[in-house]
Design brief:
Distance between the termini: 51 Å
Number of domains: 2
Pfam families: Ribosomal_L6
Keywords: Ribonucleoprotein, Ribosomal protein, RNA-binding, rRNA-binding
Subunit structure: Part of the 50S ribosomal subunit.
Protein name: Large ribosomal subunit protein uL6
Strand order of the largest sheet: 11-12-7-13
GO molecular function: rRNA binding; structural constituent of ribosome
Helix content: 10-25%
Order of helices and strands: EEEEEEHEEEEEEHE
């Protein structure tokens, strides 16, 4: 069983954290995030570190212990540094462009796809074949990157489609004569 929960979360300089009952609020240079933890875990702030401990000796408390610690760590990192997901487009004519608050995608369909950029995230297309999704909330960044990838997932024969920059596509061999 993992023991992620027993490690404290260091609070970096420039981040203020307040804990009230089960609610943690973190404010940093990139914004503010709030998390309400389950009743099975207790969150305390001691000496510039956040400690998460199970309140009960039950299986559910131990499960939520590590999860809560990971979520709180992501909140602290998000308000201080932020998160970025990079996507690459592989295919002839596949391109992306940001126009105002809309991401325009040309992915080989008969029409372009207009994806509205959420207000809490920043989407940039540094080159026509790459997209960078960045924001404070790790879950939101991953969700939006996943939604963009879902428009044309990579296929296994030529690797065409939208993929994560660090994703490795398992290639299949084509037909033989």
């Amino acid at each position: 069983m993992s023991r992620v929960g027993k490690y404290p979360i260091p609070v970096p300089a420039g981040v203020t954290v307040t804990v009230n009952d089960n609610t943690l609020v973190a404010k940093g240079k990139l914004g503010q995030l709030e998390y309400v933890s389950a009743d099975e875990v207790r969150t305390t702030l001691e000496d510039g570190q956040i400690w998460v401990r199970p309140a009960l000796e039950s299986k559910e408390a131990r499960q939520k212990w590590g999860t809560t610690r990971s979520r709180l760590h992501n909140i602290v990192v998000g308000v201080s540094e932020g998160f970025t997901k990079k996507l690459e487009m592989v295919g002839v004519g596949y391109k992306a462009a940001v126009q105002g608050n809309v991401l325009k995608l040309s992915l080989g369909y008969s029409h372009d796809i207009d994806y509205p950029i959420p207000a809490d995230l920043k989407i940039v297309a540094p080159t026509p074949t790459t997209i960078e999704v960045s924001g404070v909330d790790k879950q939101r960044v991953g969700q939006v990157a996943s939604e963009i990838r879902r428009f044309r997932p990579p296929e296994p024969y030529k690797g065409k489609g939208v993929k994560y920059a660090d994703e490795w596509i398992l290639r299949k061999e084509g037909k033989k004569k």
